[in-house]
Amino acid sequence: MTTDAPPPHEPRYAVPARLWRALDRHRPPGVDAVERAWRSPVRGPWLTSVLGAVLLAALPLVVVTGLLDWIAYGPRFDQAFPRDVGWLHPPVFDWPTRPAWLFRVTQGLHVTLGIVLVPVVLAKLWSVVPKLFAWPPARSVAQVLERLSLLLLVGGILFQSVTGLLNVQYAYLFGFDFYTAHWYGAWIFTVALVAHVAIKLPRMVTALRGPGFARTPVERTAPEPSDPDGLVARRPGPATTSRRGVLALTGGGALLLAALTVGQSVDALRRTALLLPRGRRVGDGPTGFPVNRTAAAAGVTAERAGAGWRLSLRAGDRVVTLDRVGLLALPQHTATLPIACVEGWSTSQTWTGVRLRDLAALVGATGLTAARVGSLERGGLFSRATLHGGQVTDPDALLALRVNGVDLSPDHGFPARVVVPALPGVHCTKWVAEIVFDG
Asked: Is the pTM of this model over 0.85?
């Protein structure tokens, strides 16, 4: 019995077949040369699937922590960025104050994983790069859609990685708002990732269930069998490394980046955070921990934050004004709490000051729903912040006056700053001038 079916991996053309055949016949200059250049015998479904499985396990965590961090900023009070996200608005809730390290973990994971996965992303792109130059670019409408999802996936992860790394380095070389671009870029990438996984998951599972290649030494490294996706080189050259070598190099790069990054979130390893410009200590002594914005940058002078400074407390029509001496005369509370920054660094310090709920009681505020905190800082995205009722009434939520047993330094918010468990660092307002309690 005979059949006209082509061999398993011979090119097949779907409707409109005439178009795909015409494209195949009219190959652009350089395509064949590029195809011949990709000759590594270690490329193939197995290596690509291993790297893909690592990314499939880790990237959803990056996406979820990013969404949680947006929620932590308080979209209910119009202070999450970007503000107007339309139908992309996820379900929101009042960010909890417990555990106190919650935002430190979510933001630390988001940034650290994003950095650590860079070698894996690059290795995955290297394993599939010949596909980007395949001709014809598609042989069916379904493959066109697949290639479009791949384009969005590759472009999305490169855009998110590059802009995220630049943000961590405070290098705003791009001419657009980082928060807005990162938000919409994340949604584009997520949709492309879901589509790509839906298309490729069966083949990835098949490749991983097949014979492994990790233990094959260089001298016995050979190409995998020809595959329908064209990942295996058509004219493979001699092996210069094994698949185990590629995975070891990738894993070693990821571990190196982890070692140079994890100190941003672990105080004992602070000096090892060489990739974080403000993740390291900025000096010695009780106030020698990092700051994101100095008093000079915020325009807060010694004159404005000096002896003439007053804190205004408001609740409805009632106003109470206190100077720093008056605040120090009130019952003081001490708590060890973290400050966590959106760029990924965090630090835990021991703060002393007046509970926010005691200040609310002092001005007669009851049934607290929110507190609006204003700073001496003039302008800036974070010169004001709104706390929800649960954050105001937490027993460790403070208007801090001292840290680690000494007065706050000007860069750490002297004469007073807000410190609340699990609150994003930018909302732990420094140089506080006013608190308005809403009931």
From this structure: yes
